[in-house]
Write a structure and sequence with these properties.
With 233 residues, the chain is mainly α. The protein folds into three domains: 62 residues, no CATH class; 57 residues, no CATH class; 67 residues, no CATH class. Helix content is 59%, strand content 0%. The protein is built from eleven helices and no strands. Helix 3 crosses helix 4, helix 4 packs across helix 9 and helix 6 runs parallel beside helix 8. The longest helix has 21 residues.
Length: 233
């Protein structure tokens, strides 16, 4: 349990993973070697790229260089339009905007984000957009996975501290309620055959017996004396 918890709780960006990426290893290969979800590695590398503008280029050079997207006059104009909008309005374009021009710019930005994630973003565009911190964004799926991993770690720590399985009703603390609701939802999905197999495997490894929980009718174990409880996001 300790190894799963420590891997999931590494502070982003993890220096070892960044070094491996800089040397040309792909996200999938790093995840395979470290035995962690690829989404976790992707999150760490997204943070690292936001802090180090040269990381992606170093990775591409070490990996043999992925072909960059072709740069046109229109591409550079779109880039300048995006920069001007963000600086003027303090936000990025929305694909649901009323103005067709803004919707078009949002589509262009999404494509450039995909190019960046795949290592195909042209250096001219990458350098130009570097003035907009965090422009590549962190995909919602990656953020959701990272949040899921954090709650799993919180649950593992909660149990390791001597606590009983958290309940989702009649709870003693907000922490127990939060973890209990989360755990109850996963048990419900498991019974209905809707739980992601990867998540089921992660739960089995980190908190064995999670699907059964407390035997019916058994009273809760007394809470251990402690200074504090694991934090929740």
């Amino acid at each position: 349990m300790a190894s799963v918890t420590s891997r999931s709780q590494r502070r982003a960006p993890d220096a070892e993973w960044v070094l491996m990426y800089r040397k040309g290893l792909t996200r999938a290969r790093i995840a395979e070697l470290e035995k962690v979800p690829i989404s976790t590695v992707a999150y760490h590398l997204a943070v690292a790229r936001a802090q180090d503008a040269g990381l992606q280029e170093a990775h591409e050079v070490a990996a043999g260089g992925a072909p960059a997207a072709r740069v046109t006059v229109q591409t550079m104009q779109r880039m300048n339009d995006l920069i001007a909008m963000v600086r003027t309005e303090g936000r990025y374009p929305s694909s649901k905007a009323d103005a067709a021009a803004e919707r078009s710019l949002a589509v262009w930005l999404q494509r450039r984000r995909r190019d960046a994630a795949e290592g195909r973003l042209a250096p001219e565009v990458r350098d130009g957009l570097a003035c907009l911190p965090g422009w590549p964004g962190i995909p919602r799926t990656v953020a959701d996975e990272e949040r899921w991993q954090r709650v799993l770690c919180d649950l593992a720590e909660y149990l390791a501290a001597g606590q009983d399985w958290p309940r989702h009703k009649n709870t003693d603390t907000e922490t127990e309620h939060h973890l209990g609701v989360w755990l109850h939802a996963h048990r419900y999905k498991l019974r209905r055959g809707e739980l992601d197999p990867a998540k089921e495997k992660a739960l089995d490894a980190a908190v064995p017996g999670w699907s059964a929980g407390r035997p019916r009718g058994r009273k809760a174990r007394p809470a251990p004396d402690r200074q504090g409880e694991p934090g929740l996001d």
